[in-house]
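[agent] plan:
  1. take the single chain provided in the ticket
  2. run structure prediction with default settings
  3. attach structure tokens to the ticket
  4. add a short note for the reviewer (M.T.)
[agent] executing step 1
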Amino acid sequence: MHMTAALLMGNPCDEEEDNLALLACQGTDGRMFLMSRYPGEAEIDMAFDEDEPVGVRDIKVMLAAGTLEVAVAAADADLFGGDMLLHITHQSDASDLADLEAALRVILDGTGTLVRG
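[agent] step 2 finished; step 3 output follows
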């Protein structure tokens, strides 16, 4: 599955939301993607296109300038309409990648893999 977003937004520790780590974007077609995790939680909550969040584990995320790829297990493919990979093209500024990476490191800690491209 593919989507295009103007910007990715990430926060490794939202103090107003009980230290929630969050990465989100809105596609140019209006679809939303959200990945979040509270401290101490064993699963990552992911939501796509206005669906309710689903708890997932063992995901792989690749972050690079202009792209974010999220790979889920076959059992979680329903999250992306049957696809195991969500490819997001974005135009986030290169200076924002460090904040996005920090958010992803917190979200994926112990339950996912981050690859920096």
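[agent] step 4 note for reviewer: The first strand starts at residue 2 and ends at 14.
[agent] ticket updated
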